[in-house]
Specification:
The protein is α/β, with parallel strands linked by helices and 171 residues long. It contains four helices and nine strands; from the N terminus they run ββααβαββββαββ. The protein has helices at residues 25-29, 31-42, 59-71, 126-137, and strands spanning 9-12, 20-23, 52-56, 74-78, 88-94, 99-105, 114-122, 141-150, 165-170. The strands form three sheets. It has a five-stranded parallel β-sheet with strand order 4-3-7-8-9, sandwiched between helices. α2 (31-42) crosses α3 (59-71). It starts with 8 loop residues before the first strand and ends with a strand. Bound molecules: adenosine monophosphate (AMP). The site of adenosine monophosphate has 18 residues, from β2, β7 and α4.
Amino acid sequence: MTDLKKYIRDIPDFPKSGIIFKDITPLLASPDAFSFAVQKLAEPFKNKSISKVVGIEARGFLFAAPVAIELNTGVIPIRKPGKLPYTTVSQSYSLEYGTDTMEIHSDGISSGERVLLLDDVLATGGTTEAACKLIEKLGGIIAGVVFLIELEFLKGRQKIAGYPVFSLLTF
Ligand code: AMP
């Protein structure tokens, strides 16, 4: 189980013209590939005193939950506005056109807690940058930011240069 890239399917012009969408569903559908990916994502953060894994809606959840079990931590969701039922803290961020907002429960992370942030794809980095701000608003310490896939040509890493960033697959 070394070549996880063969489980990533390119979908041209989705969701709009000019985007090559990285479809992770073949990887999720393979028990061997999925479990190998989860172990590899968790591996660099074992014995790093992480107490929460934070996943970004929606595909980030698919990896954050099993990685949290692997690291013996809790898992905390970052969601689109209006989805979380308890008191929230929110962060807006720029999109290609306009802005978007994401939210986290105000008690999701305690001050000083060491957090691992996880998402499926690092593209321009805007989403991750906003998620980092949200975690820091609650006093969390970002011990690492991890992605299944990094689209290097979009240089998203520059937006989160202050954090330890780790990606399993690069394109
Ligand atoms: P960004 O804020 O540009 O880094 O975008 C990151 C978010 O958009 C991630 O949550 C990804 O799920 C999604 N995303 C962006 N580009 C792609 C792509 N080419 N294929 C799959 N997902 C993508």
